[in-house]
Design brief:
There is one protein chain. This protein is α/β, with parallel strands linked by helices. The chain has three domains: 11-251, Rossmann fold; 255-384, Orthogonal Bundle (Helicase, Ruva Protein, domain 3), CATH 1.10.8; 392-490. The protein contains 23 helices and 16 strands. A hairpin with a 2-residue loop joins strand 8 and strand 9 (213-215). Helix 11 packs across helix 13, helix 13 (283-298) packs across helix 14 and helix 21 packs across helix 22 (448-461). Residues 486-490 have low confidence and may be disordered.
């Protein structure tokens, strides 16, 4: 790798230095070989792909392939593409003033060829940093051939006093100007079919045609495309001949485990120093967020073809912290702990990031989001506590007997969303039997408030007590108490 910018400013000095030209595909390959041999992780910060996507990607680079990353939204496709610049040399030489980043030893454009013919070894050299060799284009239906390939520029023709028959009147598009660069097209299926056709020769033969000009440019480009699966992208698809010209198609996927998902969320979530310092988030709540996302991905109410992005858990994490922060500020408190009741604040993060099927739309996005939250609460509860349904049917003593008896006596717990730390703890601590349930099951005393609240919410999901959410308040009570109260009122 060229690690520093050489002090070479002319073609003669470049030749004397012993510089040898290489294609960008060879450059990526050679630097990857060295990285693997040296044990350098080029894809640091990409989690869950160590045995799947990353090996496929490395094989494609070693094979000097153009690449298609195919997967649902929020699967780090663009992040991976941007990391590939780490495999480029730090600097490469170009002919000074060249629009197409011409290699001084193998010039491509008419400008560079003419300049070298005129100046010879005195041709001036510039150096291009690898950060300038990454070009990204979001495919949209309004992208034209002129945008990507180029067109005749009437203004250039007039200013240079040239006819349209002169090659110098051409305004090159984004792809020719990305010569010797990594060129990424995101959401490839969104390109109209006729625009995709314009990529055929560039991928296979490297020549282009602009407004009747037959130009053969030995373009040196590493192409990387990203796309959602064709069956989901209703706006279009990748046409078969173009797919055939893309050498490697690599399938991405969502995290397989909660642990990997948590690593991604912790890395990508943006929190302020004040939030980190003043708001305590129990580890179990971090796990609960990921469980909510896994619930959404497994739900029959969500369109599996659209997927559930990793951005959901990131946004939910940020919203959950902000919900606790807002409550803390309203109560003029200096510190607080995130609560399960704060999960109501992540509903906007869910409803905006899941695409529901017909049955889900009938339920309503808000109710579906609550369902995901409640199912995750119940699942986490059953990982640490005995199932109340099984215990009730069993012959041994019911571990929740004292707790149920307390609610059967007519006691009610009302938890406000914006309740102060003191009031919230006081109400939780008045519930008889809940402390014994926690201690008998050996969960951490450090998060006793969290576990108490989890038991409360989970018993409602197990139909041991009822839970109502009205006017920014959760109300927990015995199932029959409400019926008897209504009866007595009548």
């Amino acid at each position: 790798m060229n690690m520093t910018k050489p002090g070479i400013q002319t073609l003669a000095a470049l030749k004397k230095s012993g510089y040898k030209s290489q294609s960008i595909k060879d450059e990526l390959r050679n630097n990857l070989v060295k990285s693997i041999q040296d044990g350098v992780n080029i894809f640091e910060g990409i989690y869950g792909f160590d045995d799947t996507v990353i090996p496929d990607l490395e094989r494609a680079i070693l094979s000097r392939h153009n690449i298609l990353l195919l997967g649902l939204r929020g699967q780090a496709k663009t992040k991976i593409a941007r990391m590939l610049i780490r495999l480029l040399d730090e600097f490469i030489p170009i002919v000074a003033g060249s629009e197409l980043n011409d290699d001084p030893l193998i010039p491509t454009s008419r400008y560079a060829i003419n300049l070298i013919e005129q100046l010879g070894d005195d041709t001036p050299i510039d150096w291009l940093h690898r950060s300038e060799r990454y070009v990204e284009k979001l495919a949209t239906p309004d992208v034209t051939v002129a945008d990507l390939i180029g067109d005749v520029d009437p203004i250039k023709a007039a200013s240079l006093k040239l006819t349209y028959n002169d090659e110098r009147v051409i305004h090159y598009g984004l792809i020719p100007r990305s010569n010797r660069c990594l060129f990424v097209i995101n959401e490839l299926p969104d390109l109209q079919a006729r625009i995709q056709v314009s990529l055929f020769n560039i991928l296979q033969e490297g020549d282009i045609q602009i407004r009747g000009f037959k130009i053969r440019l030995n373009l040196d480009i590493e192409f990387l495309f990203t796309a959602n699966p064709e069956d989901y992208t209703n706006r279009g698809s990748i046409i078969t001949p173009l797919k055939d010209r893309i050498d490697s198609q690599i399938l991405t996927h969502y995290p397989d485990t909660i642990e990997i998902a948590r690593k991604i969320t912790d890395q990508e979530a943006h929190l302020t120093p004040e939030q980190i310092e003043n708001i305590y988030m129990p580890d179990e709540l971090k796990q609960l967020i990921e469980m909510i996302v896994f619930e959404a991905r497994d739900s029959e109410l969500v369109d599996e073809k659209s997927g559930v992005s990793a951005r959901l858990s990131i946004s939910a994490y940020e919203n959950l912290i902000s919900t606790a922060e807002r409550r803390m500020l309203k109560n003029k408190e200096k510190k607080t702990q995130v609560r399960i009741t704060d999960l109501w604040g992540i509903i906007p993060s869910i409803t905006g990031k899941v695409e529901l099927v017909y049955e889900g739309e009938q339920e309503g996005p808000y109710n579906v989001a609550l369902m995901f939250i409640n199912n995750a609460i119940k699942e986490l509860f059953l990982e640490h506590f005995p199932d109340p349904e099984k215990q009730r049917k069993a012959t041994q003593k019911d571990p929740y007997g004292t707790l149920r008896a307390w609610f059967s006596a007519g006691n009610i717990v009302e938890l406000l969303n914006d309740e102060s730390n003191e009031e919230f703890s006081k109400k939780i601590n008045t519930i008889s039997g809940i402390e014994k349930v926690i201690k008998d099951n050996g969960v951490s005393d450090k998060n006793e408030l969290f576990w108490s609240e989890l038991v409360l919410h989970a018993l409602a999901e197990c139909n041991m007590i009822t839970k109502e959410y009205i006017d920014k308040q959760f109300t927990f009570k015995d199932q029959l108490a409400g019926i008897f109260n209504d009866f007595n009122e009548n």
